[in-house]
């Protein structure tokens, strides 16, 4: 019996093509997924990114699905949120072939039920793994069929219908697609809008020849920052490899915190739906719940990770959710994450007023933050306990363990320390009133965990 625990992750399937993933294994995953959702739906919608291995793996998955008697709707090249759109609008379960920002040798599968409802370890992924490990049972009935459907124009129209840019002043925006799926979706989504796009790395190339398609790593937005300054753009937008995350830089080329984007979009969504619930994970700035409450919304704090965000959105009926990793979730997009819709909100807000983006976003950026700092440790639990013992005995300190260790200090500073699920790492995020206070707290925590 094969052991697939190394590639069946918490939220998706991911591995090195040719070593951990090949067509035969992916065909079995397709058949197992079909068995899981057969009682719920007659068809599965499948999309794939621009990696060299993606079309072949998507086709193998489709063979697995049809071998169990279900039909396949193939949408071909797609961003992950375009696949979510197809799943939501067609009310079908879906499979997206992508490894997001991982290097070219990787690929993977993101799965969802009808209406873009996520499939993770607790909602079907473990069952799929078990079925493949034990051997997929055969099916004696008629095979399903494969039809092709282009949903790009419908996806673009749907997004533009959610955010009105018709009254925007003309904007010049640099977009860095990182040779990923943003190069496929941006031209159609932005067609006809009062926005002059300056494209960077729009050529679809799964070898990522210019830089990694991970805009949260500062080295991967250096080109974007330089181009924004060079052409005098109003803003810059960077997408990751499968274009479900977006990262914003202002007219000076300075990064805008995803927490500030979360707060900005939350205020816009609350204007449409007063009193609505907004989800934020526990490493977003404390400015997010403050701003949400000031605008009449109900902030709800969750663990890090899209499955927790989406579950809480379903439970509370939340209108919007944001993570500090630049994932943004919308009730009006089947509670799925879409960087493109968040980008449209930012550009609409910018275009509705005459000031620069830096001025606009400053109102949503209240505190200084460290960003995520990773430390390799031998014993995650022991180091976290050492930090808890050090800070937890101090007067006025509050500690909670919703996700890792969150420590609130008197005066408003706080930090979160979380273990990685896949590596021997501890991840530290610190926020305080100013950069000096942040650095002091960073130094103190790191002295404990790196000692």
TrEMBL record:
Alphabetized UniProt keyword annotations: Isomerase, Magnesium, Metal-binding, Phosphoprotein
Entry-linked InterPro entries: A-D-PHexomutase_a/b/a-I, A-D-PHexomutase_a/b/a-I/II/III, A-D-PHexomutase_a/b/a-II, A-D-PHexomutase_a/b/a-III, A-D-PHexomutase_C, A-D-PHexomutase_C_sf, Alpha-D-phosphohexomutase_SF
Cofactor requirements of the protein: Mg(2+)
Q: Please cite one Gene Ontology biological process associated with this protein.
A: carbohydrate metabolic process
- Where's the Alpha-D-phosphohexomutase C-terminal domain? 372-446
Provide any one GO MF term from the record: metal ion binding
Superkingdom assignment? Bacteria
Q: Write out the similarity annotation.
A: Belongs to the phosphohexose mutase family.
Q: What is this protein called?
A: Phosphomannomutase/phosphoglucomutase
